[in-house]
Structure formats: C-alpha cells, structure tokens
C-alpha cells in the first residue's frame, strides 16, 4: 500500500471544499441583492381612500355613494353636455351624468362605465396628475400593479407635478372600448403652452388607456412610466369630437 496523499489532494475533500465555496458565493450574492433591493425606490403604497381595495363597496362592486347611468355604451359622435372646471392650470370638461360625480380631497372620481365616462376619466386623471397632489391621485386612480409602482418610484423624489405638462382639452376619439378597458385619444389645444416640444402646432394628441378597476376607471401607465403616450402634433381637429360648452 502506497503512501497516502495529503488530505487536501483527496477527491472527496476537493468536492466538499468546492461545494462549500459555491454556498458561500450564493449566500454573498443573495445578501448583496437583498441590500440592493433596500436601496430601490419604492412607489407609495395605495393610500386609504374611496378607491382603495379596502374601501366599502355595494353589491355592484362600486364604492359606496357612487352610482351612474351605464346604459348607453355607444361612442359619442357629438359633444355631450359638459361644464368646465379648472384643475391646476387647465380647464377640464365634466359631466353631471357621466362624471366625475364624487369629490374627496384632491380626488375627482365616480365615472360612468361608458365611453363618455372613460373619456372624462382619462382627462380628469391626467389633469390631476399634473398638480402637486399627484401622489394622492396616483395612489387611488392609477391601475394597481407594477406599471404604477414603477411610475411612482420613478417620480418619488419629485416635489412638483409628476405628470406631463398639458393645456386645455379640445376633443377626443375612442379607438377602442369595452366595459373593462378603453383607449382614449385626447386632442389638446396647445396655444400658449411652453413646456412641450410639439407645441409648434395648434393641436397635439395623445393616447390614454383606462381600466375598470375597483368600481371606477383608472389610468394604466405605459411601459415607459408615463400616463399617456408621446405627444404628437395634429394638423387640425378633423376626426375628433370637439367639446362644446
């Protein structure tokens, strides 16, 4: 029987040592990831309010005190009857039948589950997100999920409005509508605005997606963490339903 090799040269010891080293590397990596996650800015949790998941709801799933006439699901071809209300530096159309019918602090909510309600929700929420109360609005009127968390985290250090600067709404179209999801194209009057690159024209348009969640319409942020698509110049207002009132 020949002399035994040193224990550190034996195959079983080498395998055990390699396994132990791998365990150490994995543990160290996990610790680094955990520490890194603590540094990732988190979006604010959904705040308590009428549209939070914990809010009381009626048999129809809508928040208490919110009732609208949802019978007419045709897309308007002429301007519905509306009233104008300022939100921040904007004038926003509102309806006494399609919404918003409720107001809680900075939140204007309770929209009809119709194309008209979806249009009004898209405009009102976009306008509210351009004010200093955007955090409260984001916690209630953005679709719950990763897109909204990413949006809020991206803007977490902002003391000012997180939304893109906008001006008066001029009209709309509804390229797609179901009772659960609607895509709304908004026409904006850009006269006098100074913060948007496309405002060399008289009009600009953008798409906003709204989802029916928790008994009301909420805006679904884009994959780029914006509340609407990129602004595009519009050569005119043809093809849009123009607001009158």
Tell me what the structure shows.
With 245 residues, the chain is of the alpha+beta class. The protein has helices spanning 11-39, 115-128, 134-141, 146-154; strands at 83-87, 90-94, 102-104, 107-109, 168-177, 181-189, 203-213, 216-219, 232-234, 241-242. A hairpin with a 2-residue loop joins strand 7 (203-213) and strand 8 (216-219).
Indicate the topology.
Elements: H1 11-39, E1 83-87, E2 90-94, E3 102-104, E4 107-109, H2 115-128, H3 134-141, H4 146-154, E5 168-177, E6 181-189, E7 203-213, E8 216-219, E9 232-234, E10 241-242
Antiparallel strand pairs: 1-2, 3-4, 5-6, 5-10, 6-7, 7-8, 7-9
Number of strands: 10
Q: Calculate the terminal CA-CA distance, rounded to whole Å.
A: 105 Å
Average pLDDT, all residues: 78
In what range is the share of β-strand residues?
Answer: 15-25%
The oligomeric state of the chains shown is single chain
For the biggest sheet, the summary is: 6 strands, antiparallel
Please outline what is shown here.
By secondary structure, this protein is α+β, with helices and mostly antiparallel strands.
Annotation keywords:
alpha+beta; 245 residues; 24% helix; globular; two-stranded antiparallel sheet
